[in-house]
Amino acid sequence: MNKTEDFWDSASKNYDKTEERFEYIHNKSRENTKSFLKDSDTVLDYGCGTGTASCQFSSQVKEIHAIDISSKMIEIAKEKAAVSKIENVRFEQSDIFDKKYSDESYDVILAFNMLHTVTSPRDVMQRINELLKPEGIFISVTPCLRQKMSFLVNLQIQLVRVLCKFGLIPIPIRRITSSEVDELLEAVEFQTIESEEIYKGASSYFVVAKKLQKT
User: Fold this and answer.
1) Is the pTM of this model over 0.85?
2) What share of the chain is helix, strand, coil (3-state, %, to 5)?
3) Domain ranges of the chain
4) How far apart (Å, rounded) are the C-alpha atoms in residues 202 and 68?
5) How far apart are CA 146 and CA 204, in angstroms?
């Protein structure tokens, strides 16, 4: 197990509790997402965490492949699905770069609250483009840590940055902006079709983008 997996495994125990303060942002993002889902869709939920979003979307789509690098997050997600008798979501400890995922195999790919934590957002977005079917849809929400936030959240972010600097948090925490997300999407040939900046203690950027067909 590497340090990143170990970090997220440790975080899984209290993950849902720590996210409660941002529940308004989470709920708004999920409600926005539902209007872009169809009952024929095969969906990849990348960085699914404890599976809350996948479970909520399960009744609206054909199937969901939900992946996370943390086995403990996946265990919690599977428990949620079992309790709710959800059968069309497959939770799996995996990474988006695994070769078993075929190009152009998903109608929709979700990436909620995680683009600011990956080593190379550009590589991740390129991989998402490869996995989407022609004119497939990418939906994400990303904390914008260089934009508006409350005093308390700002203090917490500063603490996290110090912990990252000394290696106590072994993941990158990028201070990304909504405009940088737009630039990233454009660079890997996506067309934004809807976006919204959602604020509740901190700014998050919800965006829906379509994979452009190559000419």
Assistant:
1) yes
2) 40, 25, 30
3) 3-147+174-211
4) 24
5) 10
Tokens linked to 154: 């700002």
User: Is the Cα torsion angle 1, 19, 16, 42 positive or negative in sign?
Assistant: negative
- How is residue 167 written in tokens? 């290696």
- The helix (run of H) or strand (run of E) holding residue 206 is strand 203-211
- 3-147+174-211: CATH topology: Rossmann fold (3.40.50)
For 48, phi then psi, to 5°, come to: -75, -15
Measure the CA–CA gap between 135 and 76, rounded to whole angstroms. 33
- Judged by DSSP in three states, 179 sits in helix
Specify the pairing of strand 106-112 against strand 89-93. Answer: unpaired
Amino acid at 181: V
Q: What does the block give as tokens for 104?
A: 């152009």
What is the rounded distance in angstroms from the CA atom of residue 209 to the CA atom of residue 40?
19
- Separation of alpha carbons 94 and 109, rounded Å: 15
Q: Which residue from 3, 138, 114 is spatially nearest to 48, judged by alpha carbons?
A: 114
- The two three-digit tokens of residue 43, written as one number: 């969906």
Residue 215 in this model has a pLDDT that exceeds 70: no
Q: Which residues of 142-176 are buried (b: 16+ CB within 10 A; e: fewer)?
A: bbbbebebeeebeeebeeeeeeeeeeebebeebeb
- Model confidence at 1, pLDDT cuts 50, 70, 90, reads low
pLDDT over 80 at 57, yes or no:
yes
SS3 68: strand
